[in-house]
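Quick log. Single chain, no ligands specified.
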Amino acid sequence: MQETGAHPSRVAPHEEPMRVLTLTDGVFAIVMTILVLEIHVPAAMSAHNLELWFVEHGEQTLLLYMVSFLFTGFFWTGHRRLFSFVERVDHGLVWLNVIFLMFVGLLPFCASLLIHYPSLELAQQCYGTVLFALSVWRLYMFQYVAVRPHLLTRPMPPGTVRRLVPVMLFAPVGYVGFIFMTPPFPILSFIACLLAPVAYILYLNRIHRSLALDRAQRLAAYEAARARHERPSIH
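-> predicted structure:
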C-alpha cells in the first residue's frame, strides 16, 4: 500500500520518453546513412581521369561529408545529453522534438546541395541556416525542460541554467556569422562555422567540470557538518 503523500515513482505510459528517444535515434541513424550515400564515384573512367576527378571534386566531397557527419553527431550528442535529465515528456516537448527532427532531416539535402554546388552562395547559406535553426531549437528545448521540473529526474538549479544558456549561444552565433560572411569571405565563414561547435563543446565541458566540483564541495561540506553534529560529546 502506498503511503499518503509519497512521490509517485512510476511514469505514465504516454509520458514515457523511450519512444521519443527511439524515434530520434532512428532519424539520426537514417540521416547519417543518407549522408554517405550522397558520395558518388563516376563510373567508367580511366585511372588517370579518376585521379583528376578525385583531386578536383573527390577531396572536397569527402571533406563536406565528414563535416556534415560530425555536425550530425554534434546535435545527436547534445540531444542525448539533454534527455539524460528528462524523466517524462509532455505534449509540448514531444512536438518540440518532432520539429527538431524535421530540421535534422534537412541536413542531407543541404549537404548534397553544398557538395554539388560548393561555390554557390545560396548552398552555403542554406547549410548555415539549417545549422542555425537546429542550434536555436535545441536551446529552446533546453529552456523548455529547465522551467518544468516535473519533467526532470531532478530540478535544475537556476544558477546552472544561467551558466549553460550563454554557452549554448556559441553555436548559433557562429552559424549566423557563417551565413552573413559567406558572400565576402567564404573561407573565413566556413572556418567560423567549424569553430562554433568546437568552442561550444570545450566551454561546455569546462562548465560541467565546474558544476561537478561545486557539487562535490557542497557534498563535502554537508558531510563534514553532519559528522560534527553526530560526533558524541566527551564529558
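The chain is about 75% helix and 0% strand.
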